[in-house]
Amino acid sequence: MMRRWAWILPVAVVSCFAVGQENQPEPVYTAPRAIFAPDPTYTAEARQKGITGEVSLTLEVLPDGTTNNIRVVKSLDPGLDQSAVETVAHWRFQPAAKSGIPVSAKINVRVRFHLWNTPTVHQGPGGVYSGLPCAAKIDSNDLKDLLKKAHKGDPKAQFIIGCACEYGVAWIAPDRAQAIDWYRKAAESLVPAQYFLGETYLSNFDYVHAYTWLKIADLDGYQDPKDRLGMVTLFLSKEQLSEAEEQVAAWKRQHGTK
Hints:
Elements: H1 2-23, E1 29-30, E2 33-36, H2 44-49, E3 53-61, E4 67-74, H3 78-88, E5 92-94, E6 96-98, E7 101-103, E8 105-113, E9 122-123, E10 128-132, E11 135-139, H4 143-151, H5 155-167, H6 176-186, H7 191-203, H8 207-219, H9 228-233, H10 238-255
Helix pairs in contact: 4-5, 5-6, 6-7, 7-8, 8-10
């Protein structure tokens, strides 16, 4: 009798375990979702040649939302391929998850390249540009006069020239470093310049300066339509956030703001 039970018991245990496995629900999987995906930067050569199109990439989204192992699977232009890879390296995702637990995931993305004179920025009759985020319109006929005023310290002219430099209006070549320089000068007295200075730093993935200027603009009453400030905070370490807050405090002391 003892031998008989010794033989049957293991079979019963295995059978119960199998039934339990069948009743367990399948893990719920959610795919990664981009939460910060800035546009890539054109190379001067590709812009001159008028190259437009897409670069297809494959990459891994890590559990912390960062990217890894980025590879080009469909090329457009060597310089634009490199720009796409460098830009996507700074993208951030809500990671994939299984039953609420973040996991790594391999995905494909397409990075689009379009020139400034696409539907985003319109070149109208007489060289009037519209659709720019930083200006309702810019008349190319006024640029030389605006540039003179900007050099003489006119903050409104500095702001417009900064906008023209950022988007490459008329004969002014797109130059983000020049845009930052002009926005910084205008930011001494123009709140919109403070905001777009922060936006331009964000495009350069300089999160400390981006937070600093977006925060200053916020304190000065600028209504951020995209809540960039809250988003930038996600990318700052405690030390970086402290550094940015110190810069904001220094600005407040220097300019006597609350």
